[in-house]
Amino acid sequence: MEDESRILAFVARGLEAEGFVVDAAADGVDALRRCREERYDVVVLDLLLPRLDGLTVLRELRHDQPELPVVILSARSDLATKLRGFQFGAQDYLSKPFFLDELIARVRVQLRHAVGHFDGNIVHAGRLELDLARRQARVGGVVTDLSDREFRLLHHLALHAGEVISRERLLAEVWGYHFDPGSNVVEVCVRRLRKKLGAGAPIETIRHAGYRVAA
Fold first, then answer.
1. Which tens digits make up the pLDDT trace of 70-90?
2. Do 68 and 38 touch, CB atoms closer than 8 A?
3. What CA–CA distance (Å, rounded) separates 80 from 82?
C-alpha cells in the first residue's frame, strides 16, 4: 500500500520479481476494504495515504486482525511517528528513501517468523507467552508482571522469534532513539527480565550479535 503511484508500482514489481503475490491499493479506504475481504500474509503500509491515513488503517487492522504482520514504509521518519506506528501495532518500520532489497528482507522476516504468532491478546514464541492486554509474561506456568520498557523489549523479541536482534536495533525500536554507543540500557533491561522470568527465561545472548527469543 503506497501513496505515490510510481513508488507503488516499483515496490509491487520488485516484490513480484522475488516470487511474492502482490495486491496493491492506492488509498487507505481501498486498502482497508481489501484487508477485510481477503486474507494476506503481510501488509506493507504507507502512512501518507489518500482518503484514509495509514495510522488509521493500522489501528483498524489491529482491531480486526491482530495477528496480521504490518511493515510501515513511509517518508515520515520522525521519532514520534515511529513510536505511534509501533504503539498501534506495526511489526517493523522502514523510512524512505529505502533499498528495495532491505524491504524484501524485512517482509521475508515477517513471513518467516510468523511462528511468533497471536492468539487473541497472547503472543506465543517458543515457551514464552506474552499477554498484550495485561502486559504479563508466562514461562513454564510462572506469570510475571512487566514494566513498560521490559514489555516492549520482550514483545519485540517475541514478534521476531528465532531472529537475532542487535542491541542497536533494540535501542532504536524499543527506546526510540540512539543512546551513546557506550550505554548499557539494553543489557540492564535484559538482566532484569531474566531475573524476573527465572531459570526458564527464554532470552538468549548471541555473542557480538545481539539477543534472541527461541521460536
1. 999 999 989 889 988 988 889
2. no
3. 5
The set of cell numbers assigned to 113 is 517468523
Q: Are 140 and 199 in contact (CB under 8 A)?
A: no
Q: Report which residue type is found at 42.
A: V
Q: Are strands 136-139 and 142-145 parallel, antiparallel or unpaired?
A: antiparallel
Q: Are 125 and 158 in contact (CB under 8 A)?
A: yes
The pLDDT tens digits for 77-126 are 898 899 889 888 898 999 988 888 889 888 888 877 654 555 557 888 88
Those residues with Cβ within 8 angstroms of residue 207's Cβ, 6 or more apart along the chain or in another chain: none
Cell of 122: 497472547
Q: Is residue 143 within a helix (H) or strand (E), and if so which, with residue range?
A: strand 142-145
